[in-house]
Amino acid sequence: MYTIFTDPLHRIAYATDASAYREVPQGVAFPENEQDIIYLVETARERKTHLIPRAGGTSIAGQVVGNGIVVDISKHFKEILEINKEERWARVQPGVVLDELNLALEPYGLFFSPETSTSNRCCIGGMFGNNSCGSHSLVYGSTRHHVLEAQGVLCDGSIEVFKTYTIRELEERFGNRFWETESNLLIQNIYTQLIRWALDEKTVQLIEENYPDKNLRRRSCGYAIDEVIEDLHNTAKPLEERTINLCKVLAGSEGTLTFITEIKVDLDPLPPKEKMVVCAHCDTLQKSFLGNLVALKFNPVAVELMDRNILELSKENAEQSKNRFFVEGDPAAILIIELRGETRTEIDALADRLEKALMENEEHLVYACSRVYGSEISKVWSLRKAGLGLLTSMKGDAKPIGVIEDTAVAPEKLPDYMADFAQMLENLNLSCVYHAHISTGELHLRPIINIKEAEGLRKFREVAYQTALLVKKYKGSLSGEHGDGRLRGEFIQLMYGDEVYALMQDLKKCWDPLQVFNLHKIVDTLPMDSMLRFEIGQKYAIEKELGGGKTYYNWKAAFDECKVEGATGAKNQLHALMCSIEQCNGAGDCRKSNLIGGTLCPAFKVSGDETKATRARANVLREILTRGWESEAFAQALDKDKSILKSKELAEVLDSCLACKGCRSECPSNVDMTRLRSEILQQKYDVSGMPLRSFAVSRMATVEQFGHLVWPLYNLFASWQFSSNIIKRIINFSTERDIPTLSRVTMRTAVKRECRKHKCQTTKGKVYLFADEFTNFQEAELGLTFAKLLLRLGYEVEIPKHVESGRAAISKGNLKLAKKFAIKNVNLLKDKVSEQTPLVGIEPSCILSFRDEYPDLVPAEQRNEAKTLAKNALLFDEFIMREMAAGRITTDNFKPDAVEIWLHGHCHQKALVGTEKTVAALKLLQGAQVHVIPSGCCGMAGSFGYEKEHYQTSLAIGEMVLFPTIRKTLAHADDVTPCIVSAPGTSCRQQILDGTGVHAVHPIEILYRWVK
Ligand SMILES: Cc1cc2nc3c(=O)[nH]c(=O)nc-3n(C[C@H](O)[C@H](O)[C@H](O)COP(=O)(O)OP(=O)(O)OC[C@H]3O[C@@H](n4cnc5c(N)ncnc54)[C@H](O)[C@@H]3O)c2cc1C
Ligand code: SF4
Ligand code: SF4
User: How far apart are CA 781 and CA 786, in angstroms?
Assistant: First the structure.
């Protein structure tokens, strides 16, 4: 049985999608079956409200934003019901994610071919709702072309199957020439209306004259009346044999006509394996429009565009900066041209001819071409797909805004249309970002506008209006794939004329006379510049809470240093903090499931709960810190006299975050929730005090330092069940976990002793070891092993004077303390550590605080010193790789042996450095087979997994990929080859032990075991 959640957390989390709009809904429901949807339809009618069907919530035009009840089907309508290999179709529930469907279809050699850049989280229901398509629409068309059947609930609560029916079949159901008489039956009226239009010459002519070019592949503007009646007015056929399939008009109807509960789609065979991407570099945009027309003559399966702005932004994104390898020079635009064929020779020959045509012409359309093959192709597409997300990572209030981002005209008209468009932009004094599906004449055009200012808002409307006029002039479509929603609905009348618009209004009235489904979308929309996320002259509720806008991190520095053209920077620290939250554009990459991979976002992955996704966190932070208690979501709140920082909703979203930094690298908009979380936690503690547990965890190293003086006693107390349970209960840790015990001597002492013995045997330079607080007290043996390894390899080793890294304090939001550690460490190490004498760490999260947090934690005057130190603070594997590159460490230093290593990377390492270097370091052992476990976060995340209320979630996260992979691996291991599970993170190793009983080792221990 469903519940309608009306609490502020749900209402805020569902007040936006990936558009510029925000409207707080009355409630949110998660129906479990069709019957629940029927109840919801009845409830909506009774309460005189409307239902907003929602899937992944990645719509860009505000389709799933409204004041009714948001009905999220992504949680329970996730089943693939049937796959028919022979007939090549699949029957699915609407909440099935596109990439997950295609993973399930792969063994059958089939796939669902319309794709979107959001394929890893958008659902088939949402694709149907928006008539989505993607880079390969040139070949595969849009969702409308692939939906065979659908089932849905109409506004009167009846269930209907929509598929191809002949007029004869409909007459059998409703009676002979049923469209000539009136009826009380809703579904009959729906067919009647369309048949009447199709049989009326004047209406047909009206539609033909006013709809976009028939040969335009991308048309998602307004209701597709032309498509649904196409066969009905096919006079070549006898009337009773003509057909109608309502799916044609339901595709792109944006949840305004019916609630879909099942969809049957046709499937395509997997494309041939042999493919190649030619990346054609143009020095002007205009040349890329012309280059596209040349490329189209060579039968490409896709031609996509990326302009200089996107390429620049990709430099600043941790994930995408790795995918720019194909860029040569400083192109104004790159055309990505995908070619397919049966053999490599065949496509190479085609590419030769294509490149010749592009480069050897009078206009010199292209100055360089790079070819990409095999698995590298996915990196090119990953960069291209991240484009839209990257755009919102532009720092400051001015953003490449989604307003005219979806226009499509016939490709041959594109050069002229673009020339007119550029002139219009010049008149409005605007610059623009260009990218995406150029092959089909669709470009995502994003003018850079600050809609927080009146002038910007005026331009927002003006550019929409003038573009609509231009698209009409070129007989294009205002929306090619993103749909109308509340953004473009206002201009449909202008695009199609009054009479066609009236038909569309009549269509909505006929389907939904009771006004149950997604009101004010497509037709009768509100003004496109109303209900926006940002208000003119936006004030921040949090301003009152922060004494003089004081923040603990230096948020502004990144804005000051951002070199991207058009970036407006930040006025002060508070503004920079708020802009960092507002970076979230709602695109929903943080909704990827564990089947898709990556780390982002474990809290969502394990629960499937939107309120636990990074997006919800950003939405709640934005709403609470901006509007505060004034938000409509808090209309019923009783305790508005207290600080907004004490609100329950804020606590809830911060609490479910593991601070794993998954978002730091994988969110295309660079939303760094780990950092936001610790800043807001400290701000919160400033008004309400720090909980005992957070204090204790952030002071753990101090406790251990004193405990070390009486270590046998400490260990007895920590490991004896009775006493350790007392401590766990006091600080609210799970009694299922063991408190870490202390090493007999610290790493510092052990290493010092060892180094004394080896003083004269070092030749390769000096290494400063960072004795992080975990290794130093709890795993001194590991620290000693690293020192021994380095000594054996010929290095001089020293542990310099330093204090703890402050990692625990950062993760618990004790930033006052973390700042002290950062300042001290920079002061203590700045004159010692250099490129020649780097600081090398064992525990990734600790050494990486030098790189990721310190420069923004220390005072401005220390920033440069901190940045220099950061450059020379290396993870153990980075150091080894550096030395390998210099020829100072080689495979000759290690004994060859057959060994199988299964590596689980630490989240912070994955976010900031990647695991490639650990793999390369382990491959120093000739004969080692290294497998990276495709796990995200292990679930422990520092103290998160120890905390009583998080214990089960923590294990459940481990159970998603990590634990089963380890169990399976060890179960299949043979007796001959040693099989080792390795993890550089101390809490990861503990989690693996607790979850599987397997002792994972640090990669350093493996290298030491095989060093000569
Ligand atoms: C970064 C980014 C890139 C994008 N790239 C592309 C692209 O390449 N191609 C493209 O086509 N789009 C693209 N989009 C837009 C969007 O991702 C797609 O339209 C996607 O298919 C929407 O799917 P969703 O599951 O998020 O649906 P939602 O946004 O949740 O819903 C989409 C529409 O479907 C309706 N709906 C959902 N479920 C039902 C149901 N059960 N019954 C009735 N109606 C329903 C909703 O009411 C809504 O109107 C992009 C968006 C972003 C943010
Ligand atoms: S947090 Fe990042 S990934 Fe998630 S919706 Fe926001 S911008 Fe997208
Ligand atoms: S830090 Fe991790 S848990 Fe927190 S929002 Fe980012 S990805 Fe999610």
Answer: 9
What residues line ligand 1, using a CB cutoff of 6 Å? 17-18, 52-60, 63-64, 73, 94, 116-118, 122-123, 125-127, 129-130, 132-134, 254-255, 259-260, 388-389, 481-482, 518, 587
| Buried/exposed code over 874-907 (b: 16+ C-beta within 10 A; e: otherwise) | bbbbbbbbbbbeeebbeeebbeeeebbbbbbbbb
Lowest mean pLDDT among 408-412, 514-518, 543-547: 543-547
The CA 596 to ligand 3 mean position distance, Å, reads: 16
The two tokens of residue 640 are 């508005």
Ligand nearest, relative to CA of residue 586: 2
Per-residue pLDDT at 395: 84
Q: Which atom of ligand 2 is nearest to the CA of 591?
A: 4
Helix (H/G/I), strand (E/B), else coil: 999: coil
Amino acid at site 876: F
Rounded Cα distance between 930 and 904, Å, is: 11
**Closest ligand, as measured to the CA of 440:** 1
Band (1; pLDDT cuts 50, 70, 90): low
Note the pLDDT tens digit of each residue in 690-731.
999 999 999 999 999 999 999 999 999 999 999 999 999 999
pLDDT digit string (tens) for 34-62?
999 999 999 999 999 999 999 999 999 99
| Distance of alpha carbon 114 from alpha carbon 218, whole angstroms | 12
The C-alpha atoms of residue 305 and residue 103 are separated, in whole angstroms, by: 27
Measured distance CA(702)–CA(676) in Å, rounded: 26
Neighbours of 353 (CB within 10 A): 11
